Amino acid sequence: MHVIVLGAGLTGVASAWYLRQAGxxxxxxxxxxxxxxxxxxxxxxxxxxxxxxxxxxxxxxxxVLRWLGREDAPLLFRPRLxxxxxxxxxxxxxxxxxxxxxxxxxxxxxxxxxxRACLHALQTETGLEYDRLEKGILHxxxxxxxxxxxxxxxxxxxxxxxxxxxxxxxxxxxxEPALAHCREPILGGLYAPEDESGDALAFTQNLAALCxxxxxxxxxxxxxxxxxxxxxxxxxxxxxxEDGAAELIAxxxxxxxxxxxxxxxxxxxGNFLPIYPVKGYSVTLPLAAxxxxxxxSITDESRRIVCSRLGNRLRVAGTAxxxxxxxxxxxxRCAAILRRAEQLFxxxxxxxxxxxxxxxxxxxxxxxxxxGRGRPGNLFxxxxxxxxxxTLACGSGQAIxxxxxxxxxxxxxxxxxL
Length: 418
Prior knowledge:
The strands form 4 sheets. Strands 4, 5, 6, 7, 14, 15, 16, 17 and 18 form a 9-stranded mixed sheet that branches. The protein has a domain at about 55-80 and about 130-195 and about 275-365: D-Amino Acid Oxidase, Chain A, domain 2 (2-Layer Sandwich). It has helices at about 10-20, 60-65, 85-95, 100-125, 145-150, 150-160, 170-175, 200-215, 260-265, 330-345, 390-405, and strands at about 1-5, 25-30, 45, 75, 135-140, 165, 190, 195, 215-220, 220-230, 235-240, 245-250, 255, 275-285, 295-300, 305-310, 315-320, 355-365, 370-375, 380-385, 415. About 30% of the residues lie in helices and about 25% in strands. The mean pLDDT is about 95. It starts with a strand and ends with a strand.
């Protein structure tokens, strides 16, 4: 079959790879001039199998209330006259119920474990380079409340078959010596040694090059305006180039991997995807040759900030902001992230200016991505991965390729089948 993949971010390119490996003719359409230039551009760098718990959990509503009015809050809600924002917010509250949180956690964990296996197989097969570090993720606790829940969380992860080690402050320093000068007392940590980190942009663009070599066609600089139907199926995508010229691109199957922009495209066809953009920020520091910077990827559980070493750079990312489709960089948010990094690692030496970035994470209320078949029947989705796009990319790409090819699923996951 000829499959058109709409979107050349992490999930779109991963999907294209697995579709091509399954023998399909694949064309990827992307409005940017290259792959990975939007949400995948400067994320936190973590492949965090050890963080399957969604933002929506029983403790989230109270946290959001405590953070109201704080410009540096980990989760910032900016009310807008947008019914989609309020509808998403109400759904988020529903997903905070204990039973729904547990269901969502189970689904994310199963897909994450599958995705890790797919990534390892891909890396072994291709030797793909992306500043990969297999040093695990160290979750740090600075508040007594977060620390008190560490044992329960470790048990949860171990129940999924994931390695999780509880550490005291001394143990955290043994894992990552660069924390020795941290300016806030570390109460303890949870170490997930099987987790990884790496540059999602490098992965996406290098995998796109492998896709191209394998016969995948990429059409850059084309913005998808609409999907046209006929005879009970999607017949073509209407695309517009940078000069405003339109063309119709036909195929047998259409796969939507447009992140935050997926829902609006497919709504006219009767598909109502519960996806809303959640803006995240990152700061990338070029490091001096002898910088006292971490090699183990760090998650600051109290501030919802992550740090990942990417070659000679340190990526510090975090926070979530519900503010519609605004992609502008708020310097105050980035400055807060940078201040926290300097508190964690006071002896970091930068070799140049920090790069500030903001991108839209395509989030569902329960953090479970939308993967599966829509309507009409030749329309498919692989979108809505939220903060876990890098973690889930290979697994969801392999899964949707199997679904399109009519293969039985390898994992228990709530795949969409409209």
